[in-house]
Amino acid sequence: MRKIKSSGTSKKGILTAITFVLLLTACGRSEQPTPSSLRASPASSKETPAVITLLPEQHYGDKLQMQDKRQKLYHFITTELSGTAGIYTNLQDTEQTAELTTGHEMLSESAGLMMRYKALTQQKSAFEAEWTLAKQTFNMEAAFSYRFSPKLQKRYTLNAAVDDLRIIRALYEASDVFQSEAYMQEADSFGKRFYEHNVKNGYLYDFYDETYKITNDFITLCYIDLKTLGLLPIEAGERQTLIASMEKIIKDGYLSDEFPFYETRYDYGAGKYSSDHINMVESLLTVLALAEMGEEKAESIRYIKERVKAGTLYGQYTREGAATTDTRSTAIYAITAMIGSVIGDQTLYADSIGKMNEFQIEEVGSSLLGGFGDTAAQQAYSFDNLMALLAYTY
């Protein structure tokens, strides 16, 4: 779940808005409770970027006949884990007053993941319905709110860059899958807005606060979606500067060949990286972002393949590579499956999906049937379930 709080709940004003993001820990903020070619179409004054392949090409999920598991999971998400305003963060509701996103609050993260799923599975009317709902729930003047509380009727007035980029990517994917100029135009419009507020001097920032008109002063590495940044409808020189800057920040955050993952965040003012510990979901998303650009390190893939096959890829490590927990999660294996698909490694995909499937609930009569969660506690988190759903489509 998201460790983040809004400046809207703070009495410290701008200072809190600048510093609160230190609580933010992941691109996927759920805790797991259980053991085609596409071209952006910028305005005529801007140079068209090179063709970027966004859509998964391998379709390993279909080749390995994951359609039934995918459908059962989709049924769980849409019948048990969803409300009228979107997808619940957790199956169990709360008062929705905590600093962390909890209970039946909604995240723009979830909307973007479901939009991608409906685009990739070519559900045109379902995609349009999901996009319409996402705009109603999350769209603000300058960005998409990262969080909405139905109980409090509260839309938090800041975004999370990675979540906005995911929605923008989903629109580009939909424009390609459905051959829709309208989705292309919307992707360009929201992409331009995103660039104006979340990018400064060629560098990406974690959030933009619409109340105080500010960003934070660092970047969380797993927020750097290089592929989608490459589609933003901006000048060619601006695009080149942005991609080069952010790719360098990722690569310079590499830890070691012995533990081939990445630092958590980079502070622009201090010019330094920091990581209290290494959350595997975060580092895997960074590896995935590099893989989508053909820039993944062989050492990272080797390590991932070995640990996935052994079932020993855990949730958190020290910077030196010592596991701090023996917890495994659905999301970890979903992301490694996506990495396998992107690099064309069917063995990695199959091994990852096999480990992930060990967590799927198959108890007939359970309210979690088809989902991923803890049947005893009746808990299930949106990120784990939606990442698994997406992995099945890769």
Walkthrough of the structure:
With 394 residues, the chain is mainly alpha-helical. It has 14 helices and 16 strands. A three-stranded antiparallel beta sheet has the order 5-6-7. A hairpin with a 4-residue loop joins strand 13 and strand 14. Helix 12 packs antiparallel against helix 13. The chain is globular, with a radius of gyration of 19 Å.
Major beta-sheet overview: 3 strands, antiparallel
Number of domains: 1
Unreliable residue stretches: 1-25, 30-51
The top-level CATH class is Mainly Alpha
Which structural class best describes the helix and strand composition? mainly alpha
Q: How far apart are the first and last residues' alpha carbons, in Å?
A: 24 Å
Shape: globular
Which percent bin holds the helix content?
40-55%
* Radius of gyration, CA atoms, in whole angstroms: 19 Å
H/E element string?
Answer: HEEHHEEEHHEEHHEEEEEHHEEEHHEHHH
CATH topology name, in short, is Glycosyltransferase
- Beta-strand fraction estimate: 5-15%
Q: Give, in spatial order, the strands making up the sheet with the most strands.
A: 5-6-7
Average pLDDT figure: 90
Named at the architecture level, the CATH assignment is Alpha/alpha barrel
Q: What is the count of helical runs? A: 14
How many beta-strand segments?
16
Keywords: Hydrolase
Protein name: Glycosyl hydrolases family 8
InterPro entries: 6-hairpin_glycosidase_sf, 6hp_glycosidase-like_sf
GO molecular function, one term: hydrolase activity
